[in-house]
Amino acid sequence: MGRTMEWAGREKHMGGIPRKIVFLAVGAFAKAAAALLNTTSVHNADTLIHLVRSRPPDVPLLTISNHMSTLDDPLIWGFKGFPSLDAKLARWVLAAEDICFKNSLLIFLDLSLVKLCGFDRLFVGSDLAQIITSSSPAQKVCKCIPITRGAGIYQEHMNEALQCLNNGAWCLVASVITNESISYRFPEGKVSQEDAPIKRLKWGTASLIVRAHVTPIVLPMIHCGFEEVMPENYFLERSHPFPLCNKEIKIIIGEPIELDIPKMRQLAISMHRDLSFSSSGWPFISPYGLDEAAQRCLYSTISEQIQTAMEGLRIFGRSFLK
User: Fold this and answer.
1) Nearest by Cα to 274 from 293, 261, 290
2) Alpha carbon distance 253, 205 (integer Å)
3) Cα 194 to Cα 72, 227, 247, 314, distances in angstroms
4) For residue 77, what are the CA distances in angstroms to 176, 247, 250, 317?
5) Tell me: the pLDDT tens digits for 124-164?
6) Which of 36, 42, 212, 226 could be joined to 69 by an S-S link, Cβ 3.0–4.6 Å?
């Protein structure tokens, strides 16, 4: 049903009521879990709040974070002062299609919050009731973009994320990887709960930055504590079924990463001739003259710069946590 109800995720469908209801419920849940049931400390929160609320018109925002639990998003937005109840300001997030759009437990976590408030009973027999009792449409309403693992950085769904950026929207990519596997929201169907150095990033994030009509503001983030709120392998190698209480959550927000894309693009074009690789048949990016070799060089350079910034935040976070 998900592909036949994509209209459910459109911002202005039914006056935006479905999306507003979902974000009211999920946002309230995030506020309760992060600010009431647990203790959350945020470094440099004003930078994120300012960029979410007041960045220049039509300039996209791309936040990049690590990934510690299945509920990092939306709980990370529940800290005091953040507009987590505002559907219009909310992020788009890239999510593994085979987990987020098919896993009944994750769907339940989203939809049960709405049903708990009784919103599903208010619209019995309507399009809204159909959305609330469905899976993939509800994820669309939650501003989730499905990513098919293994389909590459030029898959159809990445174009959806690119379109969001081209519309000036805010996108979240939890793109830190471990064990050389991609991690958008759910890498390999699991998360990494270890405090380890930031390893090589996949190139999907860099490709979005390069292909966006307006270079997005790239804001790195690091967080910890969600591995205690939603521990993996809690019992019989299964994660805890609901968030735990009385834990400490720490969120470290960096400064926007300065990326001189035109200069980096020209450097990649001049250097790519020395690359040796097996072609994946990537499309030629015009009008900049970026063939696959130049793209690989450019995406690698951007990813390394993001990796360095995030590792710096991780190291800084150790002192922040004391």
Assistant:
1) 293
2) 18
3) 14, 8, 17, 12
4) 19, 16, 12, 18
5) 444 444 444 444 555 667 888 888 877 889 998 899 899 99
6) 226
